[in-house]
Design brief:
The structure holds 2 protein chains of 2 kinds. By secondary structure, chain A is of the alpha+beta class. Chain A is 49% helix and 16% strand. Chain B has 2 domains: 53 residues, no CATH class; 242 residues, MetI-like fold (Orthogonal Bundle). Chain B is 75% helix and 0% strand. The chains are: A alpha+beta, B mainly alpha.
Chain lengths: 447, 313
């Protein structure tokens, strides 16, 4: 038995050695082969927009035609997960060469010295007229630019033409008063009093900063701001005032007094595409959703109404940038790719493929608008819209999210219905939340 | 038999140590060392790190972590979200643990009786335990849907009007509790079933010969002998209930979902502070508080069970 065992072990060892040697040769050959076949430069891109992956691949393929020695690898996840991944990876030097991200995270990297200011050629390119002044300013921090603009989240009002026609409403509303009147005519209930069609689909439930972001689409036209910067550079809430009260009152009326929306019925892009709602404030990607879910839907897209005839139109804009990791070993190659990515032909492709809008100047949008005229308000917005964007501040997301925690409860609180004093009290409590977060961050001030 | 085993182990221990057989002891520790090292690194390390971090201010990105003493804890005590999540978590834990245990006991007693279908029922009740939480939460989101959910449809058949299970702030937490009970009842039932089957039949038979009825046999024989298992069920269920997170996260995602505040629980609040606001020191302080609360509850449960045991004994 022992002899057999020993023999068996000997055979195993020999076999193992042979296998190991073979594997080693194979691996070495493989490495050599792959080295030969592999491009000299591999750029890694991380994106928080999984829907952009086909676009990135397409651009990478086009880039490879001019730069065959460069390959691109992609990693995508949900936006929130990507924020976490990048926050852990960039400081530890394990991040990608290139990434797309919003200002809430990019500002932290910039403040921590993890993102270099743009190289001179990229800085010149950004300021060359390829983007409008608003966008260039947004990418400028303390006189230095960081990153290049990739896409822009710009909201507009989607409206269902067939429902408007059926309710006898000739044109889309241009003021919030008109909007409410149209919504009241369009909203439908069944015999039990259950709402079956919302006049407008507002963001009324759930959690997260999106609730406050949508609230700002009413607050800003009403004349308020979530936070306001003082002359000395400090910040304080900008809605514990008449505008803030009007905005919250509007939501309360939508749900309770005028009953043109109800948290219980379907909401958002799905509800609009499936004709559960007649109006919706949303970004251009909804066009893609409608194409997929209900391509025959008869709808239009116009700017979000102004508060009244004497107020300006206001439009929320959220630029998203492409950044090169400050710890990347391939910065010149990375910047070259990012510059290629933002060329007009690729900017066009971004919108055509994903529904996300690029604000790159010099793009011929003709073919896209011929096919999908609803894009017009996004790619060629009227000049009379006053734009507003997220302030580039570390605690911004916390301010929006903490206010969003409270808003859904307020929208449906019966105590706020027809009760301006209670509405004012509620607005004050929200404003205190914003101010407290600013105080904790050491950036609160009123002068 | 048990007494003999205990004696034997005492004799083994006495002999081993009295002979100064340190080589054996050393061997045991060497064998255990890799596992202990891994446990220390994977489990204890993060706990100690969290404790240390709770006295610092850190945003994950900035390499500078200033020491701020007890500030995070002081701020926590004034944070409305912390108190709200503590309240919601306590309600969730209390009701989930109580209901799932109370319902699991009769189920276990019923399934302990020899029946051909017993194994089938056990499998059915255990299925929710092995189903991953994320798809299950999404399925429950559909079940709870106000307009098209099966639950409201069933209620409508008996004339009950539709309930806004998720979007009504007064109901959303209870919807989560129902789902939580459904999820753990099978696990508790299996543990209790094992406990019941391990009770020597001689005790139950003796009670029957003495004239005890079914309820009396359960009350005075089965239940007292089941106490160690019940304690285990209560402790593990409480720990799990205090750590509720995934279903809250899934059910508050999107526009057609539960209002965040109505179902805010501690782990969700910790997650938000850490991974959304990047306030890792503050979130660590909250995590330390949660650990202390769960530890406190566990010790109280052990103390009550021991006192009861002492009184019964």
């Amino acid at each position: 038995m022992r002899t057999r065992k020993s023999k068996s072990v000997g055979i195993d060892r020999r076999a193992a050695l042979k296998v190991a040697a073979g594997a080693g040769i194979a691996a070495a050959g493989g490495v050599a082969f792959s080295r030969k076949a592999r491009a000299a430069t591999t750029l890694t891109i991380w994106t928080g927009f999984p829907e952009l992956v086909p676009y990135y691949k397409s651009v990478a393929d086009a880039y490879a035609k001019t730069k065959p020695d460069v390959t691109v690898t992609l990693l995508s996840s949900s936006l929130r997960e990507m924020e976490q991944k990048l926050s852990a990876a960039i400081p530890t030097g394990t991040g990608p060469d290139i990434f797309d991200i919003g200002s809430g995270i990019s500002i932290k990297f910039i403040e921590a010295g993890l993102l270099d200011p743009n190289p001179a050629d990229v800085d010149t390119y950004l300021k060359s007229g390829a983007w409008n002044k608003f966008t260039v300013d947004w990418f400028t921090q303390k006189g230095k630019t960081h990153g290049l603009p990739l896409l822009e989240g710009r909201a507009a009002m989607f409206y269902n033409k067939a429902m408007f026609k059926e309710a006898g409403v000739a044109n889309p509303p241009t003021t919030f008063g008109e909007l409410m009147e149209a919504a009241k005519k369009i909203t439908k209930f069944d015999a039990t009093g259950k709402m079956t069609r919302a006049g407008i689909s507002m963001r009324l439930s759930g959690q997260g900063s999106g609730i406050t972001e949508k609230f700002r689409m009413v607050l800003e036209p009403a004349g308020g701001q979530l936070i306001r910067q003082t002359a000395s550079g400090k910040w304080h809430n900008g809605f514990d005032n008449d505008a803030g009260r009007k905005a919250l009152q509007f939501y309360v009326d939508v749900v309770q007094k005028d009953k043109v929306d109800d948290p219980k019925i379907p909401h958002d892009a799905d509800a609009f595409a499936n004709q559960h709602a007649a109006m919706l404030f949303r970004e251009a990607w909804v066009i893609g959703e409608i194409k997929k879910k209900n391509p025959s839907l008869d709808y239009g897209v116009v700017p979000i109404p102004r508060w009244d005839a004497s107020s300006p139109y206001k439009g929320i804009v959220q630029p998203w940038g492409m950044y090169v990791n400050g710890k990347s070993r391939q910065k010149p190659a990375s910047w070259d790719f990012v510059k290629f990515l933002t060329q007009p032909q690729n900017a066009y492709q971004l919108t055509a493929m994903t529904g996300w809008v690029s604000r790159r100047e010099g793009v011929d949008w003709g073919p896209l608008l011929k096919e999908t005229p609803q894009f017009e308000v996004f790619v060629k917005p009227p000049a009379n819209i006053e734009l507003f964007a997220d302030p580039i501040l570390g605690p911004w997301d916390e301010i929006q999210t903490r206010i969003a925690d409270r808003l859904p409860g307020m929208f449906i609180d019966p105590a706020l219905n027809n009760n301006p004093a209670k509405v004012a009290e509620a607005v004050k409590s929200l404003a205190t939340i914003a101010d407290n977060i600013l105080k904790q961050a050491g950036i609160y001030g009123t002068t | 038999m048990v007494g003999r085993l205990v004696d034997a182990s005492n004799v083994w221990a006495r002999d081993t140590f009295s002979r100064g057989n340190w080589r054996l002891i050393l061997f045991c520790y060497i064998v255990l060392a890799p596992v202990l090292a891994l446990f220390g690194y994977v489990r204890m390390g993060p706990i100690v790190s969290s404790l240390v971090l709770s006295f610092h201010k850190w945003d994950l990105i900035n390499p500078i972590k200033p020491f701020i003493g007890w500030s995070n804890y002081a701020e926590l005590l004034e944070d409305d979200n912390f108190w709200l999540s503590l309240k919601n978590t306590a309600i969730y834990a209390l009701l989930t643990v109580t209901l799932s245990t109370l319902l699991a006991v009769p189920l276990a007693v019923f399934l302990a009786a020899k029946s051909r279908l017993s194994a089938v029922y056990q499998t059915i009740y255990f299925l929710p335990v092995i189903t991953p939480m994320v798809p299950m939460s999404i399925a429950w989101k559909w079940i709870y849907d106000y307009n098209h959910g099966i639950l409201n449809y069933v209620l409508s058949l008996i004339g009950i009007p539709a309930v806004a299970w998720l979007t009504d702030p007064g109901i959303a937490l209870y919807a989560l509790i129902i789902m939580g009970v459904w999820k753990v009842i099978g696990y508790n039932m299996i543990l209790l079933l094992v406990g019941i089957r391990n009770i020597p039949s001689t005790y139950v038979e003796a009670a029957a010969i003495d004239g005890a009825g079914g309820w009396q046999r359960f009350r005075y024989v089965t239940l007292p002998l089941l106490k160690p298992i019940l304690l285990y069920v209560l402790v593990t269920s409480s720990i799990n209930a205090f750590n509720v997170f995934t279903q809250v996260y899934v059910m508050t995602l999107g526009s057609q979902s539960a209002p965040g505040q109505a179902v805010r629980v501690l782990v969700f609040d910790i997650y938000q502070n850490a991974f959304q606001y990047f306030r890792f020191g503050y979130a660590s302080a909250e995590a330390v508080m949660l650990t202390m609360i769960v530890l406190g509850f566990t010790l109280i449960q052990f103390r009550i069970a021991r006192n009861k045991e002492g009184q019964d004994g």
